[in-house]
Amino acid sequence: MESNQPIRNPWTSIWTRPGDTIEQIVKTNPKNSVIVLAAVSGFSEFLYQLSELNAGGHFNGAQIAIFALIAGSILGVVMLYILAGLLRWSGSWLGGNASPEHLRAAVSWANVPTIWALILWIPRIALLGHDAFLPAAMVVKRAPDLVGTLWWMQVVQLVIGIWALIIFSRCVGRVQHFSAMKGFLNILLSLIILMLCVTAMFSVVSMFLPASFMQGLAVK
């Protein structure tokens, strides 16, 4: 249960007291580290996604890290503004009244677990070397003796992801002035809208692309 005690370190308190933490942040300085958090979390997520896309099979670790740092950071900041806007729009249907600035703070600070998850890359690279940047299924084939260790790392990452969603729901709920459950619904609605927009954009773009190009994408 969250308390009314002052928050000394939001980087740690966000794990156990997300509501109190985000409330103190938006009351004192809602712009605090928002862009930095969005950029670093974007880098963290992009690094993982590149590995799952077999980036290690085509580039070396330094190239992957640099590309993830640049592209992931930019994408993280862009998604910060898009998601905050969608949360404000869909949240208004549920009775939410948070400002865009407060929602950006909620989105960014809810990404703290994702940033902490970067630590998992240390043992992953130490154990696998360059193979750390390959998809999980391929890594298991190359290092069958490390299946147990890799499995536990995946479990830890899954737990962090689930807890990050809980934190996100609580943060959104607090700044929108409704429950964490409504906060989760607010997030779900925003993601559905985002997926529909992306799908619609892809459909429109595909209308102007050659049929052979689209067939090539389908085969891949």
* Integer count of domains: 1
Beta-strand content bin = under 5%
Strands, total number = 0
Biggest beta-sheet profile: none
- Evaluate the radius of gyration: 19 Å
Shape: globular
Number of helices: 11
Average pLDDT works out at: 85
Order of H and E elements:
HHHHHHHHHHH
Low-confidence residue ranges = none
* N- to C-terminal distance: 48 Å
The portion of residues assigned to helices is: over 70%
> How would you classify the helix and strand content by structural class?
mainly alpha
Task: Write up what this structure looks like.
There is one protein chain. With 220 residues, the protein is mostly helical. It has one domain. Helices cover 75% and strands 0% of the residues. Helix 3 packs across helix 4 (61-93), helix 4 (61-93) packs across helix 10 and helix 5 runs antiparallel to helix 9. The radius of gyration is 19 Å and the shape is globular. The N and C termini lie far apart (48 Å). It is found in: Membrane.
SSE layout:
Blueprint: H1 10-16, H2 18-28, H3 34-52, H4 61-93, H5 100-109, H6 112-116, H7 121-128, H8 136-142, H9 147-176, H10 180-206, H11 211-219
In short:
This protein is mainly α. The protein has helices at residues 10-16, 18-28, 34-52, 61-93, 100-109, 112-116, 121-128, 136-142, 147-176, 180-206, 211-219.
Give descriptors for this structure.
75% helix; Yip1_dom; membrane; transmembrane; mainly alpha; 220 residues
